[in-house]
Amino acid sequence: MADAPSTNAAPAFLVALREALGAAAVLIGPDVPERNRNDWSMQQPARPIAVVRPVDTAGVSMAMKACRAAGVPVVPQGGLTGLCGGSRPEDGWVALSMERMVGIEEIDPASSTMTVWAGTPLELVQRAAAEAGFYFALDLGARGSCAIGGNLSTNAGGNRVIRYGMARELVLGIEVVLPDGTVMTSLNKMLKNNAGYDLKHLFIGSEGTLGVITRVVLRLHAQPQCTMSALCALPDYEAVVRLLGEARRGLGPLLSAFEVMWPDYWDVVTKRVGVRSPLQQQTGGNGKEVYVLVEAQGTDEAIDGPRFERWLEKLMEDGALTDAAVAQSVADTQAFWALRDACAEFVSVLGQNISYDIGLPVKSMADYAARCKAALAERIPGCDSVYYGHIGDGNMHLVAWVPGMGPGLQPKEQMDEVIYGLVREFGGTVSAEHGIGTAKKKWLGHARSEEEIALMRLLKGALDPLGLLNPGKVV
């Protein structure tokens, strides 16, 4: 790989851009930070010729115009926590980082909205909403690092989609810089606005291939006044589906999370990671037990707490559950979530592994998990896998690995063929919440028709005819 050019040998357009935006805004050649060379997809680090770090929309527009005139590709970057290569540059590209476009511009209590800059970390958005007496519902494990612009560009999901929807459901307005530098400002605050095409949805979920998000108007909700949670053991997946129906009927709009862990996942987190189970029954007797974390958010603890407990007690009386534990404190709730979030520790106990994010019809998930586990073991000698996910919103995660194989040696291509081949057979999607980027581009046709992909390419060509904004990603 050739070395990036030194500042003195930098292209003229970068020198001019640096003079216009300031030295801190344009890092050239050897000044390019290591973090901007890759994202969490862990592909081979690249060498962008520069990192441009504007402080406002005008700076983004200027950068896009300069790169377009020079014919240099641009990749937008937020918190760089993506898992599919969507924010990874290629050698010779310019990385356009939102890291200095941070802050809360306005909180409007009357419209229950917050206007923020795209580089603002998700956790900062959540905290600002809470301090103002509101709740921003999007939540995921990378909350402290990921940027809200990246969350929207990938249409992030997270833990509470079953109640609040995906990221696109939490956005009312958007400001975007198009590939030619044009600024489209549509910072709408109204829940109802049917004046023509709802253009924000072109850019939410497009992974920075159609435009660069600079500011957004977020939809806020009332702050929950109480949270109830229970960890349940069930005899099989059929009982899980019935429990999901009972939760929707019995808890209604209070239901905020429904996390499912298959027995193989449960064994890893309780026996190998070492997270303590609050259940009396540590592992069941038939090998088919499935574990569910149910969470509900209410507005009145005196009413909603007893309601949640009565709902759970009736299920126990009816024999729907094998075992259950109800959180009595915030610490209990955190302990329950620690079981679900223990997948972050898998590298330390399993070694190198490959994680997958797929979507499936809820009723088919158990059949998929069983067939996939068997197919991986048959196709790849020694391959093991575990299954878990949000389930209530149709999202399954799985982790596959061959013990003892080091970094870069896991047979990912063979795993992909098995996992995504079965996804197509079951009528699912190869990406439920992580996007496509470059890592899943090969498999897009397993989830989208030829006509859908052709329309995606038509939109890309219309907005970016020179193909300079994040080229080669998604389609």
TrEMBL record:
GO terms for biological process: respiratory electron transport chain. Keywords: FAD, Flavoprotein, Oxidoreductase. It holds the Pfam family FAD_binding_4. Its cofactor is FAD. Residues 44-223 form the FAD-binding PCMH-type domain. The keyword Lyase does not apply. SUPFAM superfamilies: FAD-binding/transporter-associated domain-like (SSF56176), FAD-linked oxidases, C-terminal domain (SSF55103). One of its GO terms (molecular function) is FAD binding. Belongs to the FAD-binding oxidoreductase/transferase type 4 family. This is FAD-binding oxidoreductase.
